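Run log, item B.
One chain of 91 residues. Sequence copied directly from the ordering sheet:
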Amino acid sequence: MTIVKELTLVNKYGMHVRPAGTLAKVCQKYGSDITVENGGTSVSGKSVLGLMTLEAPVGTVLTVTATGDDADLAMAEIEEVFANHFGIADE
């Protein structure tokens, strides 16, 4: 199963080290292959460094793709993380 979603970064500082770490940790819980794309650059959602190279400030729309048996569960949790500002209170 493959699920593709466009998710907007709504946290104050965009994709910096803390949200990248949170997103990577969530993605690593799943067996599905998860990629995150911005402006033609695609990286593994399981890589903190890769996510930080996306240079994605607040308002950036990222394309997230999950492929695998648990893609639906992974995408549901990823969407929740984006909506909850990656669990960062000041953002």
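Observations after the first pass:
- The beta strands are 2-8, 33-38, 41-44, 61-67.
- The first helix runs from residue 17 to 28.
Flagged for discussion on Thursday.
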